[in-house]
Design a protein that fits this description.
Elements lengths: L1 H24 L1 E5 L7 H11 L4 E9 L2 E8 L4 E4 L5 E5 L12 H10 L5 E6 L3 E6 L4 E5 L4 E5 L1
Antiparallel strand pairs: 1-2, 2-3, 3-4, 4-5, 5-6, 6-7, 7-8, 8-9
Length: 151
């Protein structure tokens, strides 16, 4: 009986210690220095948003790695993974630049949703999620084939 109580207390203490350590590993830093971004992320920003200055960069470091959230002066929000690959664009009330949207997805939206604008693009390992003005979310595979409407 005593061994069971001691074992339970040991497990609880170990879990509590782990829960205390995990937040300590997470760090967010803010900067306006574009050189803190990976080269690939800097290239996307310069080639696509050259006229817009960086308002701020959030460098998010946690136990899974580092990611970069960039906010431009026009309100556009960009997210990059640790290598600088674009993972999300939220243009707010503006349009996501055509350069960032795969041609097959652009063509599908132009054909099936005339006058619609793409305001957000999420890039996942298996699919793209596109948000149109008005909030309609469309899903596409990595080849740009339409999969359906996301509820």
């Amino acid at each position: 009986m005593k061994k069971t109580i001691i074992a339970k207390r040991t497990i609880i203490a170990a879990v509590m210690a782990m829960l205390a350590i995990v937040p300590a590993l997470a760090r967010d830093r803010y900067t306006t220095d574009h050189t803190q971004l990976p080269a690939a992320a800097r290239q996307v920003i310069v080639e696509t948003f050259g006229q817009n200055k960086i308002n701020h960069i959030k460098i998010d470091t946690d136990m899974y790695g580092t990611s970069y959230d960039v906010v431009l002066n026009n309100g556009t929000e960009l997210e990059f993974d640790r290598q600088g690959n674009l993972t999300e664009v939220d243009a707010g009330r503006n349009c996501v630049p055509d350069k960032l949207v795969p041609a097959a997805i652009r063509n599908y939206v132009k054909t099936n949703y005339k006058n619609a604008r793409i305001t957000s693009l999420k890039i996942d390992h298996s699919h793209y999620e596109v948000e149109l003005i008005g909030g309609l979310d469309l899903l596409f595979d990595r080849n740009g084939r339409f999969l359906g409407v996301d509820d």
